[in-house]
Backbone:
């Protein structure tokens, strides 16, 4: 049983069986307040799935990209939940969950023609920037094929970049916790590592090296 | 849960130290600290985002290290404790998220507590046990129960607060605090002014060793008669910092060399004087012959010496926790939670967040209705 936790946009928690059956999915769409809701969401996800913490075998952690203050809350929670049970964390690129959901949806509805047509998952990165990752179809393990790793682009420039490369733009304002856990389930089944060990901040901390101390004037 | 001697794991991430502490009742079992101080050195002060990133990386290894040191398994823990505030919001959130998930994962209660009150709780931890003797070579082994009421002066790079403690778990009042920089920040800024590295406290101390504390009379912030009505117990260090800067600039303009030792000693004396004067005024005003010192700046020898000397002259007894428990740490958070458990208080609900300006009157956050 896999517990999925993602706080790269809102806060999403889900419990999914190894074969992909979704047992529960709860979320808060508040783009802030991750630390407030994370504990209750985990509790709710377990309760709605009718499982206890002891039934969880893996924790899928959404590693971003996402605004870092919130993103860290989910990663910290995933790590300590796993530590508490002595089980592994399975890191997942948060955009992968969005991409897999879109691909599954398209497959069901016959949505897009040519399933390998590249598309970009685009999310808010604040500070007038978008975070985006480019995908093209599913691989043999049922995981989305990431053609371009997560990156940042100024809001005004992204469309030009995507059009130039013939990439369809698909905006997301939430990360589906259950699909995040499903990504982890498929990665585990295929014995693959699909996410980075560390948070995908994509941005250095905002700091300026101090110059000489400011003169106060005599 | 064992309510007479609860085994508590405390998580502290309010500033630049990732602190994990494990206590059993009042006995310290582990005080594990991972500091990101070195990462802030080149910036001359704590950079919140750098601190928060470091917490995320340090948390799990620090918990593992604390468990190993104390020989405790997570499954033995009676409750998890965490700092809810005050502190840097982004840094606090890492600890809050981690603590909640750990509590749910272990199916144990969670106590969300006040960082400042934690500094006071540090002083009731007993280090004089076989388990903890090896952890700290301090002479003061702590462990004596607190006598109430007591005045507490908490001084660090993040806060400068004067508190009246009537009961550690239920009645703490803020008498005064800094209106601008924390005392530790003032040390950092003046150190930079003098071309000394970060963190400033130990550097100023070193420089001051050969200096004359009376060489330059720097201003004592908020100590004029006119300040005493509204800000009797409040502190201000930004004027002092500016005065030091002005003095140094004037000396430079006059072409003279900067007597770094004298400037450092005189600056330190101004800080120490105002801290001790106001703390003892609080003792006098409230008829409380007890003063507890806490926070990282207490490591400053001159501050301790002056406080001990002047307190003794006024018949005030001074308590100072072992220095390893003065800097921010998780053991003090666990210690405070242990007191709450032992006094029968219910745990916190999971519905709380990081509160960067948590008032000191909120000793425990989001306490469940019993
Ligand atoms: Zn502190």
Residues:
């Amino acid at each position: 049983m896999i517990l999925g936790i993602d706080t790269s946009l809102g806060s999403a928690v889900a419990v999914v069986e190894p074969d992909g059956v979704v047992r529960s999915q709860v979320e808060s769409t508040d783009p802030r307040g991750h630390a407030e809701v994370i504990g209750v969401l985990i509790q709710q996800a377990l309760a709605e799935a009718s499982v206890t913490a002891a039934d969880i075998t893996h924790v899928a952690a959404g590693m971003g990209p996402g605004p870092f203050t919130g993103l860290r809350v989910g990663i910290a929670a995933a790590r300590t939940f796993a530590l508490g049970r002595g089980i592994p964390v399975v890191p997942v690129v948060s955009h992968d969950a969005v991409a897999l959901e879109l691909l599954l949806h398209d497959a069901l509805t016959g949505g897009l023609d040519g399933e390998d047509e590249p598309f970009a998952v685009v999310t808010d990165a604040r500070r007038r920037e978008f975070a985006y990752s480019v995908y093209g179809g599913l691989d043999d393990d049922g995981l989305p094929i990431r053609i371009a790793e997560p990156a940042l682009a100024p809001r005004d420039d992204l469309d030009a970049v995507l059009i130039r490369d013939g990439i369809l733009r698909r905006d997301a304002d939430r990360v589906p916790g259950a699909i995040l856990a499903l990504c982890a389930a498929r990665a585990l089944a295929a014995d693959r590592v699909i996410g980075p060990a560390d948070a995908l901040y994509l941005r250095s901390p905002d700091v300026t090296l101090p110059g000489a101390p400011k003169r106060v004037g005599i | 849960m064992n309510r007479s001697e609860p085994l508590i794991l405390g998580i502290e991430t309010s500033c630049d130290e990732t602190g994990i502490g494990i206590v059993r009742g009042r006995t310290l079992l582990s005080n594990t600290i991972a500091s990101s101080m070195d990462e802030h050195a080149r910036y001359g002060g704590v950079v919140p985002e750098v601190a928060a990133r470091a917490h995320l990386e340090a948390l799990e290894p620090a918990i593992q290290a604390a468990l190993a040191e104390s020989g405790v398994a997570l499954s033995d823990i009676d409750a998890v404790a965490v700092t809810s505030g005050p502190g840097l919001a982004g840094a606090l959130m890492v600890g809050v998220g981690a603590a909640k998930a750990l509590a749910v994962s272990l199916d144990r209660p969670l106590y969300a507590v006040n960082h400042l009150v934690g500094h006071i709780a540090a002083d009731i931890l007993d280090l004089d046990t076989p388990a903890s003797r090896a952890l700290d070579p301090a002479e003061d082994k702590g462990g004596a129960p607190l006598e109430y009421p007591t005045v507490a002066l908490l001084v660090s790079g993040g806060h400068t607060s004067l508190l009246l403690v009537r009961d550690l778990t239920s009645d703490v009042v803020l008498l005064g605090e800094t209106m601008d920089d924390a005392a530790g920040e003032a040390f950092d800024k003046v150190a930079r002014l003098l071309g000394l590295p970060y963190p400033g406290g130990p550097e100023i101390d070193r420089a001051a060793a050969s200096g004359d504390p009376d060489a330059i009379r720097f201003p004592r912030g908020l100590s004029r008669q006119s300040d005493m009505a509204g800000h009797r117990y409040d502190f201000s260090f930004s004027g002092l910092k500016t005065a030091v800067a002005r003095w140094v600039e004037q000396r430079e303009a006059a072409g003279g060399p900067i007597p770094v030792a004298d400037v450092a000693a005189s600056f330190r004396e101004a800080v120490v004087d105002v801290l001790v004067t106001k703390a003892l005024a609080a003792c006098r005003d409230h008829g409380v012959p007890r003063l507890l010192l806490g926070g990282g700046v207490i490591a400053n020898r001159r501050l301790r010496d002056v406080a001990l000397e002047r307190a003794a002259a006024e018949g005030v007894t001074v308590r100072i926790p072992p220095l390893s428990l003065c800097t921010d740490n998780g053991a003090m958070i666990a210690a405070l939670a242990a007191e709450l458990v032992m006094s029968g208080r219910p745990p916190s609900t999971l519905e709380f967040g990081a509160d960067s300006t948590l008032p000191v009157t909120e000793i425990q956050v989001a306490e469940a209705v019993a």
User: Anything to note?
Assistant: The pocket of zinc ion is lined by residues B 115, 119, 156, 158-159, 295, 328 (CB under 6 Å). The longest strand of chain A covers residues 144-154. Residues 162 and 168 of chain A are 7 Å apart (CA to CA). The beta strands of chain A are 2-6, 11-16, 22-28, 58-62, 89-92, 119-124, 129-138, 144-154, 168-171.
